[in-house]
Amino acid sequence: MGFRLPRIANRKTSDIPKGHFVVYVGESQKKRFVVPISYLNQPLFQSLLSQAEEEFGYHHPMGGITIPCSQDTFLDVTFRLGV
Asked: Looking at the DSSP assignment, which residues form a beta bridge with residue 54?
């Protein structure tokens, strides 16, 4: 006999389209960006993730992936990736 657990949905996570994930970007004030999972295979994006790993390890203060670069740098990288 089984039972169903209630589905726990956070409003912030429910507005993320399938195939995307959230990153927080900024040096002092963080901004939330929703990006395609396909970016994980891109060397430019991987370098941003390496910076995040060096700075935060696997503990990210915002609860999601926090990338420690300026928003301008992040937007430049995502523009190069085809956004």
From this structure: none
Predicted pLDDT at 14: 64
The residues, any chain, with a CB within 8 Å of residue 15's CB and separated by 6 or more, are: none
| Cα 17–Cα 9–Cα 24 angle in degrees, nearest 5 | 55
Summarize pLDDT for 21-66 with one digit per residue, the tens: 999 998 888 899 999 999 999 999 999 999 888 887 776 666 678 8
Tokens of 52: 């995040």
Query: H/E/C letters for each residue in the chain?
Result: CCCCCCCCCCHHHHCCCCCEEEEEECCCCCEEEEEEHHHHHCHHHHHHHHHHHHHHCCCCCCCCEEECCCHHHHHHHHHHCCC
